[in-house]
């Protein structure tokens, strides 16, 4: 019984350690990513979406179970979980000079993913959406899912 309780406590402690973003190392990684890769605001992304001649990809790096929450109404929305970017992106977006807007739920994973895409995979025109989907919706923009349009009511 003691071994079982110890195992359960270890899992809980590990989970909170892994997901916590208050650690010095995590803050350093985030700072480096945000220095290395440029952010794009929700307003700037909306302008791209409204520009019928703009050519760009949006890259959703959330986990697959989060994809049903909703996304942008864009034709070239690529979905690759952050842990699979190094394996799948080169097959999905072959043009390394294409504009790629990386996004996640809250704006934490996207800068790290964007840095990997730019620095390790050699893509030249990478941005991350500041604030992620939450920031997008907080700015008053809609997302779309199987229910249709989703917009925050304020």
Keywords, separated by commas or semicolons:
154 residues, alpha/beta, Oxidized Rhodanese, domain 1, two-stranded antiparallel ribbon, 7 strands, disordered N terminus
Quick summary:
The chain is an alpha/beta fold.
CATH superfamily label? Rhodanese-like domain
Quote the CATH topology. Answer: Oxidized Rhodanese, domain 1
Overall radius of gyration = 17 Å
What topology, given as strand order, has the largest sheet?
A: 1-5-4-2-3
By helix and strand content, what is the structural category?
alpha/beta
On the 0-100 scale, what is the average pLDDT? 86
What's the structural domain tally?
1
Structural shape:
globular
Strand content: 15-25%
- Uncertain residue segments: 1-18
User: What's the CATH C level?
Assistant: Alpha Beta
Helix percent band: 40-55%
Number of alpha- plus pi-helical segments: 6
Query: Largest beta sheet, briefly?
Result: 5 strands, parallel
């Amino acid at each position: 019984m003691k071994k079982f309780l110890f195992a359960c406590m270890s899992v809980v402690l590990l989970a909170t350690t892994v997901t916590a973003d208050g650690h010095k190392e995590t803050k350093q990684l985030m700072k480096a990513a945000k220095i290395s890769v440029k952010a794009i605001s929700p307003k700037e992304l909306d302008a791209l979406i409204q520009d019928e001649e703009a050519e760009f990809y949006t890259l959703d790096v959330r986990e697959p179970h989060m994809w049903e929450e909703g996304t942008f109404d864009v034709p070239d929305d690529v979905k690759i979980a952050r842990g699979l970017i190094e394996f799948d992106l080169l097959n999905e977006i072959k043009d390394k000079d294409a504009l790629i807007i990386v996004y996640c739920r809250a704006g934490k994973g996207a800068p790290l993913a964007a840095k990997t895409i730019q620095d390790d995979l050699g893509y030249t025109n990478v941005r991350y959406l500041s604030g992620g989907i939450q920031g997008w919706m907080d700015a008053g923009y809609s997302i779309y899912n199987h229910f249709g349009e989703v917009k925050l009511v304020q």
